[in-house]
Structures are given as structure tokens and as C-alpha cells.
Design goal:
119 residues; mainly alpha; 70% helix; 0% strand; rod-shaped
Length: 119
């Protein structure tokens, strides 16, 4: 029962931590905290599986764990979407910057020579 309570508390902390997504330099530390919490949570879940844990729908704690798990999945998906969007914006910015500095880099023209026939 103690490990279930640890899992419940770790899951609640992770759910709370995933609530707001920081911008900029703070995001690296934010992601490291998420990874640490997920690792801790995974260890507790593996220990529970080794003990022969079975989900019981009638147990209030088990239902709470299921609700937290679903919420964590949704919030992790939101964090991943935000990161993907920022990466896409960064790539777009890089491309725009390169095009600004060299606007004719994508133009493929065969330059030739012009001969004037004056006799």
C-alpha cells in the first residue's frame, strides 16, 4: 500500500508540474524535471508489477491513479506539441533568414555569354 501511495503522490506531482509550459531557457530545466519524475514513476510501477499489482475498478485510489494517468498523457501530448511547434518555427525562421541574406540562392538560371556580331 505504501508504494501505491508513492505512485499516487509522484503522479500528482507530475500532473501538477505539467500544468504550465515555460518558454525559452526555462524549458530545458522543465524537461529534465519531467524526465526525472517519469523515471521515478516508472520505477514505482515496475516494482508494483513485480509484486503482482492488479487494477481494481472498485478501489477509489486505483480510479484516481487511472484518472491521473490519463491527465498526464494529455498534458505530455500538449508539451510535445508545443515543442514540435517551436521547432517548426525555428526551422522556418532559419529558412527565412537565409533567404533574406541571399534571396537568389534558390534561383537556378543558366548564365551564358552574349556575343555581339559587329562587323
Amino acid at each position: 500500500m505504501q508504494q501505491i501511495n508513492q505512485l499516487l503522490q509522484t503522479s500528482a506531482n507530475l500532473f501538477k508540474h505539467l500544468g504550465d509550459i515555460p518558454k525559452g531557457e526555462e524549458r530545458d530545466n522543465y524537461i529534465e524535471n519531467i524526465n526525472a519524475m517519469l523515471d521515478k514513476r516508472g520505477t514505482i510501477i515496475n516494482d508494483l508489477k513485480q509484486e503482482g499489482f492488479h487494477f481494481d475498478e472498485q478501489d477509489r485510489v486505483h480510479r484516481t491513479l487511472l484518472e491521473l494517468d490519463n491527465g498526464i498523457k494529455k498534458r505530455l501530448a500538449a508539451v510535445m506539441d508545443a515543442i514540435k511547434q517551436d521547432m517548426a518555427n525555428l526551422q522556418k525562421t532559419k529558412k527565412s533568414e537565409q533567404q533574406y541574406y541571399n534571396p537568389y540562392s534558390n534561383v537556378r538560371v543558366m548564365d551564358g555569354m552574349y556575343y555581339d556580331k559587329k562587323n
